[in-house]
Specification:
Layout lengths: L1 E6 L2 H12 L3 E6 L4 E3 L4 E3 L2 H8 L4 E2 L7 H8 L5 E5 L7 H4 L6 E5 L7 E2 L2 H7 L4 E8 L9 E8 L6 H20 L16 E2 L15 H10 L6 E5 L2 E11 L8 E5 L2 E5 L4 E9 L5 E2 H7 L14
Parallel strand pairs: 1-2, 1-6, 2-5, 6-7, 8-11
Antiparallel strand pairs: 3-4, 7-9, 9-10, 12-13, 13-16, 14-15, 15-16, 16-17
Helix pairs in contact: 1-2, 1-6, 5-7
Amino acid sequence: MRLVFAGTPEFGAVALQAIMLAGHQIDLVLTQPDRASGRGMTLRASPVKQLAQAAGIEVFQPATLKDVVVQERIRAVAAEAMVVAAYGLILPQAVLDMPRFGCINIHASLLPRWRGAAPVQRAILAGDQETGVCIMQMDAGLDSGPVLLSESLPIGDDDTGTALHDRLAELGARLIVDVLARVPLTGQPQAEAGASYAAKVDKAEAALDWRLPAKQLARSVRAFNSFPGASCSLDGQVLKVWRAEVVAGEGLPGLILAADRNGLVVACGDGALRLVELQKAGGRRLSAAQFLAGTPVLPGARCALVAA
């Protein structure tokens, strides 16, 4: 089919690659404007833009889709369908109505649970046992359209946000190719019962609050790996925590109960958390043994209740 593709991060790039390999004609790729990132705040193209340019596909980066001139450029493609995967901009009704088969979204949750921007992280934070991907016919609501195809997968006890994202991206790519081969399809309307909202992750959420149960903090470490990275504060220094595990232990929240090559054991509101991979500001990720070799920590020290 003749398609327009709209996506921005790696999740979208995986789907775009699969659609190209399936032989569809992608006449236009929409992606968000280049963003400044890194220490030098250099403008960087999105993963979707990089892939599209390498394939010789025209790229369009409007700041909004509400502008009539922008809409006319999209309309001129005369696409049979638009595929949307983590694009990041709202599609107005005029755009939703353009393609013959409408706009089809790849969403990384089992709708109606976790509608919104951060379904992967929210599923881990909530302790969900499973998640999945829904291919959805888009409507004017927030991830509320009929589901064309879905498939679930389990969330492992050690799954990080990155690992789960990558599995869901591959699943979404496979499912969208399946759907495109079979359109038009009749979707299953979503029930409103059980609907929940996956709010965008705020960096402030990643600060570990040692008054909370260790199980909850362990989920935070997993969910925020790789963005924005869970953090704690020790001796006035903010540390990123990339891996941690729940262990037995009790004490005042934030108290260091043990510090050895196996990790830093920190007392929580309920139980304790062993920090096994850490990173200083501007440094690299280190195992607990490597970290302690350069930064001695004695039991009895105390992490700030919440990182600054």
